Amino acid sequence: xxxxxxxxxxxxxxxxxxxxxxxxxxxxxxxxxxxxxxxxxxxxxxxxxxxxxxxxxxxxxxxxxxxxxxxxxxxxxxxxxxxxxxxxxxxxxxxxxxxxxxxxxxxxxxxxxxxxxxxxxxxxxxxxxxxxxxxxxxxxxxxxxxxxxxxxxxxxxxxxxxxxxxxxxxxxxxxxxxxxxxxxxxxxxxxxxxxxxxxxxxxxxxxxxxxxxxxxxxxxxxxxxxxxxxxxxxxxxxxxxxxxxxxxxxxxxxxxxxxxxxxxxxxxxxxxxxxxxxxxxxxxxxxxxxxxxxxxxxxxxxxxxxxxxxxxxxxxxxxxxxxxxxxxxxxxxxxxxxxxxxxxxxxxxx
Amino acid sequence: xxxxxxxxxxxxxxxxxxxxxxxxxxxxxxxxxxxxxxxxxxxxxxxxxxxxxxxxxxxxxxxxxxxxxxxxxxxxxxxxxxxxxxxxxxxxxxxxxxxxxxxxxxxxxxxxxxxxxx
Lengths: 350, 118
What we know:
The structure holds 2 protein chains of 2 kinds.
Chain A: E1 2-3, E2 6-9, H1 13-24, E3 29-33, H2 40-44, E4 50-51, E5 60-61, H3 62-73, E6 79-82, E7 86-91, E8 97-101, E9 106-109, E10 111-114, E11 120-123, E12 153-157, H4 161-170, E13 176-180, H5 190-201, E14 205-208, E15 212-218, E16 222-229, E17 232-237, E18 240-243, E19 247-250, E20 261-262, E21 265-267, E22 281-283, E23 288-289, H6 297-315, H7 326-329, E24 331-332, E25 338-339
Parallel strand pairs in A: 1-9, 2-3, 2-10, 3-6, 10-22, 12-13, 12-18, 13-14, 21-23
Antiparallel strand pairs in A: 4-5, 7-8, 8-9, 11-19, 15-16, 16-17, 20-21, 24-25
Helix pairs in contact in A: 1-3, 1-6, 4-5
Chain B: E1 12-18, E2 24-30, H1 37-43, E3 65-68, H2 79-85, E4 95-97, E5 110-114
Parallel strand pairs in B: 1-5
Antiparallel strand pairs in B: 1-2, 3-4, 3-5
């Protein structure tokens, strides 16, 4: 069991900054995220795009913002459970919460801060009849273990980097690789596109474009797919069909945690501390809603700051505390580091 | 003198939007606020929050896909929009991403239908 003071669901910018504000109050944090890396949408969707409305940064790339946040929170030694989705929450007799992930990792904390953005990123599933019935029976949206495809016939569909990269990778593993895309153009990295072209020329990848998988063939187990290309309809035998259409955020299991949901977001008390209808559970950043809510990173930072002060009071109801400026108090890391403003040097004139 | 806002709404155009429930709405859209069609849909709450404009308007999801029903001549698709539509679902010949359609006076009378949620 991982124990911490504030358990943060979601390692996007708001979740990451929470670690800093909590750290100033000597509270330890642990973050859970379904994605394998921190940064949320900034890392997953638009790392190379500039953001222009972070105060005092006329322009910063989303990826750099995440790197800076990671550096800023480093002294507070946050824990991370990455690549696992927070599934369930159970309130304990002592008032704390236990959150269990999709891989069964258990976390316990008196405070849970949900900073889940638009939800956890899940694969986009193409709208093909009965496709869901074949999930894990030959249809997979994520490649977890490439060895599963050894000496198998694989059909991949999609036009982005993951479709290209996995097609390339699986040529050395699978007995056959077929790549299907609705256009002749691919939007993946140029060298991946060129590599696929080479493998196609060498007869190692069968490329069918412009084409689309329109139906699944099989009884209990996948036996093939129906492909429409132009006016032609082909039935292609295969052991695995892997649609790789990227990820999209879904609120997911959080929606069943007993929290008050409105407009696909969690209602919070914004006049006070961004607490939800469940005392001890807060929601900050894009995942929450209140009158006048704006889904902006800068608002998430503000909400995280307010929330941490309230969390401190919940954990230590009898302690008195006033917010301290970092310029005055410095930043004392849990790793023994200390940053502080240089002291003035007073020198007499003789 | 050109200021940020004129007091009248003379820059507004009319757009007809059929929502995902099949209900038709005629709305006023300003041409002077650098808005796109996805934002107009959100401003009038014609699709639930979280189901449209998920990527914020970067042509990186297809949650604002719509079908253009009138014969307006719209700006050509950028490579980004084209690529995203090639990976979107329920795509038709007249599909566009609402976030890439910037409200312009020559869109007056535009009629669109929102594509189903993925």
